[in-house]
Fold:
Amino acid sequence: INAGSVANSGTLQATLGGELELVSVTVTNTATGLVQVDASSLLDLQAATISGGALTNSGTVTSTGASFLTSVTTTNNAGDLIKVTSGTLQINAGSVANSGTLQATLG
Structure:
């Protein structure tokens, strides 16, 4: 999804080894809105914002540019990765349940 905004009351999902790429977009979740990353799949945040709802990671989330998780209930499962490769990933409000790895790298 490139640019603009998305109102999500369902599920945006990266599945079956696929990639969900959010580029310069704001995803506004309702209370039931979910962004889900399945095993071996990738969520690529490029200067993107996810606001509200939930983010559940069972794969890999990468962030570049200035990306934001605002008031999101975030779950990073065991063996899984949330990685900032350049820029910043700001987590404001919400919560983070982390059993996996949170990583910031230079590059």
